[in-house]
Write a structure and sequence with these properties.
By secondary structure, the chain is mostly beta strands. The chain has one helix spanning 84-87, and strands at 12-20, 23-31, 43-46, 51-54, 59-66, 72-77, 80-81, 89-93, 97-102, 111-118, 123-133, 139-142, 147-150, 155-162, 168-173, 176-178, 184-189, 192-197, 206-214, 217-228. The chain has a 5-stranded mixed β-sheet, with no helix packed on it.
C-alpha cells in the first residue's frame, strides 16, 4: 500500500490482513507524518538607518536580518563594493546582525550605504545615508603610516584632511620642503593627499611631515620611511 502526498491526518496504525481457507495472518505498522521543515525566508527585521556624524567620528551602520545560515552579506558605498582595506573599515555578520564600522569618517565618505543580503534563491537590500559635517580647524581623519620599502621601488604616503575652508597641504623631508619633480609627485584627490617617492634610495630614508593649514589653524603629522636592501636573487643550480 502506498500513501501518496501524505498529510498529518494520515498518521496512525495500519494493518495488513491475509485470509484464505487455511487461516488468517496479519501484521501492523505505524505511520507518523511530521510537518515539513520550512526554510526561513530572507528578510530585514531592522533596516539600516541614516547617520549624521562629524569629521573624525567613528560610525556604525547596522542591519538586523532573518534568513538561512548560508546568507551572504556585501556592503556597498555609492553603488561600489566596499573593500575594507581601502575604506579603513570593518565588517561583521553573526547570522542576525550585519555591521559596518567606519573609522574616522571624512566628508569624502558622504553618500548612500547599502547592505546587500543574498542566497541562491533571493536577494534583499537595505540602505542608509551618511552625512559628515566637516571640521572647521584642520583635522587629519587619516594619518600617515610608517613605510618599509625595498630600495628601487616606489613609496607612497597617504593621509586625509578635513577643514573649512579646505586646508592647504604641504610636504617636507627633514624640514626640507618637497615639490613635484622627477623623483617626487604630490597628488590630491578630494580630501585625500598623497606623496609618491619614485625609486627610493637610502637618501630617501627618514621622517616625512605633512602640514595642513587654513585660516583657522595648522596641524602636522609625521611618519618614517625605512629603505630595505634588495634581497639577493637565488640562483638555481
Amino acid at each position: 500500500m502506498t500513501v501518496k502526498s501524505a498529510v498529518r491526518s494520515d498518521t496512525g496504525s495500519y494493518t495488513c490482513k491475509i485470509i484464505n481457507e487455511y487461516g488468517t495472518k496479519q501484521c501492523e505498522g505505524r505511520l507518523d507524518v511530521k510537518a515539513a521543515r520550512v526554510e526561513p525566508g530572507l528578510a530585514v527585521v531592522r533596516p539600516v538607518r541614516d547617520i549624521t556624524a562629524k569629521a573624525g567620528d567613528t560610525v556604525m551602520f547596522e542591519c538586523h536580518v532573518m534568513g538561512p545560515q548560508d546568507t551572504d552579506v556585501d556592503w556597498l558605498a555609492n553603488n561600489k563594493l566596499i573593500q575594507p582595506a581601502l575604506l579603513n573599515c570593518k565588517m561583521h555578520f553573526d547570522g542576525r546582525k550585519c555591521r559596518l564600522l567606519l573609522n574616522s569618517v571624512h566628508e569624502d565618505d558622504i553618500g548612500t550605504y547599502v547592505c546587500k543580503l543574498s542566497t541562491a534563491k533571493e536577494e534583499v537590500i537595505s540602505s542608509g545615508k551618511l552625512k559628515v559635517i566637516p571640521s572647521v580647524y584642520p583635522l587629519f581623519t587619516r594619518k600617515l603610516d610608517v613605510l618599509e620599502v625595498i630600495e628601487g621601488r616606489n613609496a607612497r604616503f597617504n593621509c586625509k584632511v578635513s577643514g573649512t575652508p579646505p586646508p592647504t597641504v604641504t610636504w617636507s623631508h627633514f624640514d626640507q620642503p618637497l615639490v613635484d619633480s622627477e623623483d617626487v609627485r604630490i597628488v590630491q584627490e578630494g580630501g585625500r593627499h598623497s606623496l609618491i617617492i619614485f625609486h627610493v634610495t637610502n637618501e630617501d630614508e627618514g621622517f616625512y611631515t605633512v602640514t595642513a593649514r587654513n585660516g583657522q589653524g595648522e596641524v602636522e603629522n609625521s611618519a618614517e620611511l625605512y629603505v630595505q636592501e634588495p634581497r639577493p636573487a637565488i640562483s638555481s643550480q
